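Practice problem: predict the structure.
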Amino acid sequence: MNILAIDTSGPVAGCAVMADGKVTYQVTMNRGLTHSETIMPAVDEALTASGLNCGDIDVFAAVAGPGSFTGVRIGVCAVKGLAHAVGRPCARVHALEALSMNFYGFDGLCCPILDARRGQVYCAAYDMKDGLPSEVVAPDALPLEAFIEKLGADRRLVFVGDGVPAYGDRIMETLGSRALIAPEHLRSLRPDAACVLAAARPDQWMAARLLTPIYLRAPQAERERAAGRDHTKPLRRQREEAVRASAKRTEPEQSGGLPGETRGAPKAGGGATK
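Answer:
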């Protein structure tokens, strides 16, 4: 069985090929270029180096999120297109599960955290003692402290993912010696882990048209629409329009007479208003 996995869900993009249970090629890229520029040349190189073409792939695996909304869509769309072109199924791989594979066999809980901005992390906790991740805390988007409260107090914890640089110090201050912080070379998602997870769960494969991103929080555009804001306009322009609309609603009604004249007041030149 041949598997091609693509990950563009976070800052580090990558792809891997697994042929008959052996990883034949893997690459990760963190060069500051957009994933749309780098991923398809990387896929072409991976297939060529493995002596394969798209028609030889049995299943295409996408790391479908959570992560960067734009990045997730790039990877999902790439996998859907490749799979549809050759009539093969897709595997939908959860980014937090794939990250936990970095600590295969760890006897505590593996706690992947991704920086979700807005003071939150995408997070989950998995028991890894049997190899494949077994969910202990369900994936969610939470403030770090709320996530830590869900972890209990009886097991060692290892934290992995791109949220570690931003939150590592707070984790150690809160948890002390219970917590391990993944070193730099074990913090990023490995695309070959996506191959392993896809191979282990053939019952979850799906047609390309059914592959969708994994979101733990609505995209910003949807949140703005729900709040009644037009996400196509710059925020400054929206604020200016809101101020003008508010001022218009609170303007006193004018009489149409001379400046400063109000209804019921004597008109210039004499008599009272009838």
